[in-house]
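Entry:
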Amino acid sequence: MTEDLIYIYDLSPVLRRTINMKWQEFWNKQVCNKLHVVKTNLGKSTHHLSDRLQDVLRCRMRIGHTPLTHGYLLRRDDQPQCSHCGVEISITHILITCPLHEDHRQRL
């Protein structure tokens, strides 16, 4: 009779896997979420706490939320324009498309 008992620590891994699978399924449906681009698979972070600042900065760059590109919202200003091209400033524009920075990109 006692061998028929299921202990909570026996169920814990099964429950954890099931919850993580459901959470991942929900996350996979969030394709319009900017953070989905940064982290498509949920789970334990591979980064150490000491790298947190770098992780935050990388995440902000990936989703395009930086003081340069979004600071105007907090200041209630107009969206900044590229002084060279006249288009709205974005991370993609600065790092990939703006001809003004082509020389810097070539050196990388």
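The two ends are 69 Å apart (CA to CA).
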